[in-house]
Amino acid sequence: MAEREIRLFGDPVLREACASLTAFDAATAQLAADLIETALPEGRAAVAAPQIGVALRAFGYDLDGRRGAVFNPVVVETGGERVDIDEGCLSVPGLWFPTPRWSYARVTGLDEFGEPVELEGEAVFAQMLQHETDHLDGTVYVQTLPGQRRREAMRQIRQSSWF
């Protein structure tokens, strides 16, 4: 396992819609391990494959006592209230913005062996599921912000030392 370097907003891989995995082998298991390892440090909850430069539909997570990786995830259900939740992203370091998210989400996908998995959760876990699957469609959360909030986020990004 290896913690991988995080790609930052502006990197082209973060704008790509990721390819689905069709074969599950040792490379898939290694990617799962790397995603989980990269999600482990304090202050992190999850990381999507494009954030480590891999344009495949996968993310790893370590949140609320649950840890794992999901390949080819699909959000199959959202519900509850749509609320603004303070959200940050490893690819947009140091910046947090209120982001509209559903308070409940359910994702189906496959584990690193190609076996079906289902994840569901509320509050921060639901936020994570929505956030990571957005990454796999080539969307960074600041791109989903409404009007003035998005303009302010982009202004702060352009002024960041890392941009």
Strand content: 35-45%
Indicate the CATH class. Alpha Beta
Could you state the oligomeric state of the chains shown?
single chain
Please tally the helical runs, counting DSSP H or I stretches of 4 or more residues.
Answer: 3
Helix fraction, binned, reads 25-40%
Classified in CATH, the superfamily is Peptide deformylase
The CA-CA distance between the termini, in Å, is 28 Å
Looking at the overall shape, the CATH architecture is Alpha-Beta Complex
Shape: globular
What value does the Rg take, in angstroms?
15 Å
Biggest sheet strand line-up: 1-2-3-4-5
User: What structural class should be given to the helix and strand makeup?
Assistant: alpha+beta
The beta-strand count equals 5
CATH fold assignment:
Peptide Deformylase
Folded structure, characterized:
The protein has 163 residues and is an alpha+beta fold. It has one domain (12-159): Peptide Deformylase (Alpha-Beta Complex). The chain has helices at residues 26-39, 123-136, 147-159; strands at 46-48, 58-63, 66-89, 92-110, 116-122. The protein has a five-stranded antiparallel sheet with strand order 1-2-3-4-5. Strand 4 and strand 5 form a beta hairpin. The model has no long low-confidence stretch (mean pLDDT 96). The active site is at residue 132. Its cofactor is Fe(2+). Removes the formyl group from the N-terminal Met of newly synthesized proteins. Requires at least a dipeptide for an efficient rate of reaction. N-terminal L-methionine is a prerequisite for activity but the enzyme has broad specificity at other positions. GO terms for molecular function: metal ion binding; peptide deformylase activity. Keywords: Hydrolase, Iron, Metal-binding, Protein biosynthesis.
